Amino acid sequence: MTNLFRLRYEISFLFIAMMMGILAFSSARELPEPTFEPMGSAAFPSAIATVTVLLVLLKSLQLFVTPQTRPEKENENKKEKEKEKETETETDSSRFTRSLVMLSLLVAFVSMTHFLNLAWWISTSLFLMAAMSFLRKPAGVTPLIIRCLVIVAFSLILDYIATQVLYLDL
Length: 170
What we know:
It is a single chain. The protein is mostly helical. The protein is built from six helices and no strands.
């Protein structure tokens, strides 16, 4: 019974989100053409509307394509979660320490870009490598090298999108 109520609310939310995305997209198309800017004022609302519509479509596919869970499966999932909670021994002080380290990594990232004038993709790569290595230790040298290469590629792609597509001065 609760699945029917949940499904009804999810469909209603998806419908409202889709209408908002379509409305934002159509409103952005009515904005005047730019005279001096390469992108214009309609670029950001169009991008947000496109992302909204794509996410609604993905959620709709997930909602209607994936099979519904059975009550037995839900009970198994609850039991597994309870076991995870019992085995979890992380204390409040270690959580505070992890949060403090992540905050200091973020401050170091901002300092590298702002005060040291390091290239944005370099500081982003260093920040992501440090954060990911801190949160989950690599299993060996090969996964570490693969992780570093993916992070550098991701940072370069972000830098390209920010500077060449969005015309941000990083």
